[in-house]
């Protein structure tokens, strides 16, 4: 079993004062690089990632990442002094054996999927010359914010209404990671709506070829208490064209 501690820095926190979801993935990636397994040291990259966000870390907290003994799927637990804040399972693979076959275009789409086009810039690249999985997670997050604004619910309006939409889980399947200058098309829609949550989908493609798929669980919470609340009916109405029934 291997461990490493990370101090939460101010720039890693979101507007709610919590450690941003992307940082959890970066901590896991850095631990693997330190151990010599992940690219560039070991050449391995994630083929699948399943991450559950179970608690909140804040600026100044120490987050300890504990890694299980190596198996085909490596498990990680992230803890602070307050308890467990995240669990991650990663299927590490040789870049040549990524499960591209599972990234076929989906056919179960809503009336109006939302698209964001984003080029991969120099700052997005790591030592492999590719954008990392945390970078793709940041693209998904940006698309999630953008789709809300497009349908009349920018973050400031959500705040005025007293709620936030928080991430609880990412299930990620990866193909070939994009390189410098690649134009990533992020298509997004949602499904599996309950009274308090939805499953949002992100399909990322380059030149028409899928490179990543995210299946993401979001929950509506009261900003003051961070406890789940019912999704406002007006929000559901405004997003009808982006939902798969």
Give the biggest sheet: 10 strands, antiparallel
Order of helices and strands: EHEEEEEHHEEEEH
Give the fraction of residues assigned to helices: 10-25%
Overall shape = globular
Span between termini: 44 Å
Strand residue content: 35-45%
Structural category is alpha+beta
Which whole number gives the mean pLDDT? Answer: 91
The strand count comes to 10
Rounded to the nearest angstrom, the radius of gyration is: 18 Å
The helix count comes to 4
* Low-confidence region ranges: none
Biggest sheet, spatial arrangement of strands = 1-3-4-5-2-7-10-9-8-6
Task: Please tag this protein with its features.
245 residues; alpha+beta; ten-stranded antiparallel beta sheet; 4 helices; 18% helix; globular
Q: Overview of this structure, please?
A:
With about 240 residues, the protein is α+β, with helices and mostly antiparallel strands. The protein is built from four helices and ten strands. Strands 1-3-4-5-2-7-10-9-8-6 form a ten-stranded antiparallel β-sheet. Helix 1 (about 20-35) packs antiparallel against helix 2 (about 135-150). The mean pLDDT is about 90.
SSE topology:
Layout: E1 2-7, H1 21-35, E2 45-53, E3 62-67, E4 73-80, E5 83-93, E6 114-119, H2 133-150, H3 155-160, E7 163-174, E8 183-191, E9 197-206, E10 209-222, H4 233-238
Antiparallel strand pairs: 1-3, 2-5, 2-7, 3-4, 4-5, 6-8, 7-10, 8-9, 9-10
Helix pairs in contact: 1-2
């Amino acid at each position: 079993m291997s461990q490493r501690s990370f101090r939460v820095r101010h720039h890693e926190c979101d507007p709610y004062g919590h450690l941003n979801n992307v940082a959890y993935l970066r901590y896991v990636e850095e631990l693997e690089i330190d151990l010599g397994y992940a690219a560039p040291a070991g050449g391995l990259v994630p083929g699948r990632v399943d991450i559950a966000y179970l608690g909140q870390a804040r600026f100044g907290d120490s987050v300890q990442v504990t890694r299980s003994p190596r198996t085909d799927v490596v498990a990680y637990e992230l803890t602070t002094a307050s308890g467990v804040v995240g669990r991650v399972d990663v299927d590490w693979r040789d870049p040549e054996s990524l499960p591209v076959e599972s990234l076929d275009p989906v056919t179960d789409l809503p009336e109006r999927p939302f698209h964001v086009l984003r080029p991969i810039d120099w700052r997005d690249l790591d030592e492999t010359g590719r954008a990392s999985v945390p970078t793709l997670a940041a693209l998904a997050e940006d698309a999630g914010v953008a789709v809300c604004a497009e349908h009349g619910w920018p973050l400031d309006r959500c705040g005025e209404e007293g709620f936030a939409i928080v991430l609880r889980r990412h299930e990620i399947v990866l193909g070939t990671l994009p390189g410098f200058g690649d134009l990533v098309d992020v298509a997004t829609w949602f499904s599996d709506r309950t009274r308090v949550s939805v499953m949002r989908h992100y399909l990322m493609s380059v030149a028409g070829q899928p490179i990543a798929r995210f299946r993401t669980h979001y929950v509506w919470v009261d900003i003051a208490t961070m406890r789940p609340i019912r999704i406002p009916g007006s929000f559901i109405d405004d997003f009808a064209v982006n939902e798969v029934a």
